[in-house]
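Support case: user asked for a sample of complex input and structure output to validate their parser. Sending the pair below.
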Amino acid sequence: MALLEIKNLTVLRESETGQKTLVSAISLHLPPGAKLAICGESGSGKTMLCRALVRLLPRGFRLTGEIRLESGRFSGKIDHADQQVLEFIRGRIIGFVFQDIPASLNPVLKCGRQLSDVIATTQTLSRTELATALEDLLVSVGFENPRRIMDAFPFELSGGMQQRVALAMALAGKPEILIVDEPSTALDAIARRDLIDLLNRRCQETGLSVIIVTHDLLNVHKFADHLLVMYAGEAIESGPAANLIEAPHHPYTQLLTAAWRALLNNQPFSPNAPEFTQNVPGRGCRFVTRCPNRRKVCLEESPPMTVSAGGRCFHCHFPSK
Amino acid sequence: MKSVFWHPFFRNKNCRTGLVIILPFLIIAIMQGALTRHAPDTQNLSMTLAAPSARHLCGTDYFGRDVFARLIFGTRLTLAMAFGAAVLATLIGTLIGMIAGTTGGLIDRVLMRLTDVFLGFPRLFAILLCASIWHNSPWLTLQIIVAFSWMETARVVHAESMLVNQALYVKAAQGLGVSRFRILTAYILPYIAGVVVTSFTLLIGTVIIVESGLSFLGLGVQEPTASWGTLLNQGRQDPVGAWWLSAFAGACIVLTVTGLNLIGDGLKQLFEERRM
Amino acid sequence: MVESLLSVENLTAGYPCTPGLIGKRQNYRPVISGISFAINPGETVAFVGPSGGGKTSLAMALAGFLKPESGIIRFRGEKLDDQARGAPRKIQLIFQDAGGALNPHLNIGAAIAEACAKNLSKRECLDQVMHFLQMVELSAELIERYPAQLSGGQKQRVCIARALAAKPELLILDEPFSAQDLLIQVQLTDLLRHLKSTQKLTLILIAHDLLTVRSLADRVGIIARGHLIEYEPTAVLFSQPRTALTRALLEAAELDV
């Protein structure tokens, strides 16, 4: 049971053309056993945020701010920790499932071999213990026939199966926090449902904390108890998931939930908000170009943080309701 | 779009270094006679085989001709021949590779087997054989060099063409009824341009060496014309005693080819980065 | 009786597993087998099914990118053979990977112009390009841009504009909603609905989720393991699913949320 605390996390990219902020001063608190969903469009910074948490940012990217981890096996700050500490944490305390599954599996090694390599790195076991651990791991992610998976190469498996193998790899070190980046974009509807069910079961059985990054509100609805909505690198709204979806305050979240509801109820929906572009204004609210509630002050001042009842929090000058 | 190419070009270390190395040679080739007061053909029998001195910077040869002047005048000939041969060979190789790669089937197999046959010839031997039969004509020599230099380009272009031919956007274009010719020029060619340019650059160096080798053996450019190869040839009889006859020419060849190879390597890096 | 626009009889298609030395296929593996259905003009049909079931292969076969092993495809009553070169096909396909379907070396204006008629003057061609950009609700300033500078949703619309410029009679969209964010999905659905009514298009949508196609499709076909296992009007399929797989897909669509 681990606790993760993030304060003012910012991710910057340095290039010849200047500095670009991809994630802007995010703070969040993940209690033990929590299931947090981070929602947002492409370009909102949600993937960068997750990679920053495990310090797997690409070259040229820099992070500032504080990440604090408290668990039985490790306590302390990891935002600027050195390589050794990070190697201990990754896999053993924080597990990560990447968005691009086929790229994260080695195509020339059989799945069994890849998985046992990971298990062996995080635990010292004898040969027989390793084999048992491998089989248990595969069964725990929902494979009924572990032998078949162990002998298969990744390309021989379907998308849904590959997803589960990647999940098994992330869980091999028995981490206390699992970060899953867009788990269902490459999966069909049935596989997606199976995956969410699997995650739910896992959380129930082991008390795992999960951060799931997704743009699909269905995943949020079926899985998460907390939700953080990101837009253009900033956290614009957060709170208990069910409550937030039911009654969002921020205009962007309202747009999302309205669209989703229209989809579910088979109703036409014409969002008259233009598409997201990379050019966000320098000051003021970042959503201003698409916001139906915008006024003059939105262009000039950054919206303040408002905390309301029930753990709800949002940044807006003129929330609708 | 031009600046998209030149900026990274100058930033790449290999390209910069290579350019710095071959630039003097390019200048020499252009300026020729302005750089020396001696003529390459003037014989001075009273001063044969003189070692390098202030008056004759690279010494004189068996006929008292100034080696430095011959080197200067030979530069243009050697570089022009190499450039010309490389252009022709690259054109032929690109055409064959592109057609084979995008057509597939029988034509592909025939063209590639043809390429293999040419590759299979012991190249230098074939060139020597041809050159020894027709050695009086430098133009013919050039053609023979071209005839045996297009294959590597063809191979590489073939592989890349096959690759891009499978690309989704080529399929989409076919579905839209885009003509075969347009697909070759606007879809395939831009993709393979990188390997073609790299291949071309490296080929210039190869041709310089081949030409020099031919002239060294007396089969390419003939006396009294000066080229780097003929200069090498002259030093054959007494390579140690009259070292200045071959050494300077040899150094020119080594430097130029190294410079060109560096540029070629740099270009390869640039195009691979773009691909990523 | 309305003559069907497209009728497919017993279509079987697939890929060779291990091509032989002389080019003869060996160990041919069917990806779709025995598929038969018909589509009427102006209809929108959705083919839904799990990944790997053959939906994309069906789309490729209909659009002429995959030669069928057996079976007949009739378009307006005539057999669809190898498409004539030099003319845009009457059945246009919008690929799942919109970015990959655009030539990175051509700007958007040129990309759309590839589909326009060949004998137009420059002025006329430009007008056509603007016309189709407008149709997909993209701004005219995108003409000069290159695909790499566009977002995923914009690239998709450019592909649609390009396909429309080819004046197709049948438009197939392969998994248009899968990779997109919710808002873009919704906007795309809106656009398709609008195009359907203004352009009188016949559409085929390929998807893996029933939810995304429900509002657009008149009829839905379920494709799994290469077979068409159900083919009903949308309302019928949703209320009275006949097969277990259809029921599983309906459950996965979470309609009762």
